[in-house]
Each structure stands twice: as C-alpha cells, then as structure tokens.
Amino acid sequence: xxxxxxxxxxxxxxxxxxxxxxxxxxxxxxxxxxxxxxxxxxxxxxxxxxxxxxxxxxxxxxxxxxxxxxxxxxxxxxxxxxxxxxxxxxxxxxxxxxxxxxxxxxxxxxxxxxxxxxxxxxxxxxxxxxxxxxxxxxxxxxxxxxxxxxxxxxxxxxxxxxxxxxxxxxxxxxxxxxxxxxxxxxxxxxxx
Length: 192
Fold this sequence. Notes:
Largest sheet: 6 strands, mixed
Number of strands: 14
Radius of gyration: 16 Å
Strand content: over 45%
Number of domains: 1
Order of helices and strands: EEEEEEEEEEEEEEH
Number of helices: 1
CATH class: Mainly Beta
Distance between the termini: 27 Å
CATH superfamily: sav2460 like domains
CATH topology: Lipoxygenase-1
C-alpha cells in the first residue's frame, strides 16, 4: 500500500514482515502544462532532470544524474535522461535505482532533486511527482506530488536516510532555483 506524503512527512522503509528493503527506485514523472495558443491548446516540451546526491553527514560524496549515470560505488544508477516528460502516461519518466545493501556504510543520506534544465518554471509543469518503489516487488511505497506549480525551476523532492539498521524516506518538497543539482546544494544543506 502506497502512502501519499505531505511536505516534511516521513515513512520507515522497514518491510511489514520486519525485513529491510534492499533495493528501491525513485521515479519522477511529469507532463507539460497545456497552454492556450492562437490555434488552440498546445504544450511546450519541458526537460526535467532527476538527480540523487549521496552524502556522508553534510558532505556530498557523489551524484547520479543524466551526465553521470552510475555512482562511483555502483550502488546508484540513473536509467537515462527523458527530455520531454509524459512518456510514461502517468508512470516514471526518469528513474534512479538504489541498491541500499550495496551502499557504503559512510553514505547515510541520498537526496533526490528535480530541476528544469531548460529553465522553464514549474508553472509550466503538470502532474509532477516522485515516488519510491520497492524494486524487488514493484510495490509503490510512497509518493510525493508536486502541487501548485510555482515560479521556480527546481525542487529538493525527498531524501532516503539511514535510521539505525534501516532506512527512512522523508518528503522535502522545497522549491528552489537552479538548472543543475550543483545549483541546489545550498537548498539541500538545511535538510540534512
């Protein structure tokens, strides 16, 4: 059963049988918002990019994004860049796979961001979401929906972080401005 998260809300990633998740997928989906034009409704292509920044404490250690598809340790993998969104018809347009069991012990947080590489604001985006899926079973565990659009070009979406021997996901939903994950680091730091 999936949980719809509100900004700041977290869920444990402990399985109902007491086991821990070993692999998760953070999916990102979106569509371009239709606009009224001279000749009727039309849409503009929007290139959103999902990134995962791996932290040890407050220190960024590695990043996975469209130009670096696999983390240095091989535990985190981006499935590839989608330049227009909406391809999944409600499914994931971009996804980042995380092998939690393979992550080095010093990596204690993974922060997922989304940014508009081409600079369009979120007022031009519809139905944007990020979701966490148990990659072993395909079951959606949690979903955070980006609501309200807004005059910004990026968002710190969520983080997966260690809690004892397990993991927890927290929805962040912090609007920001930036075309790449590097632009978002100052917005990420308060959430570590």
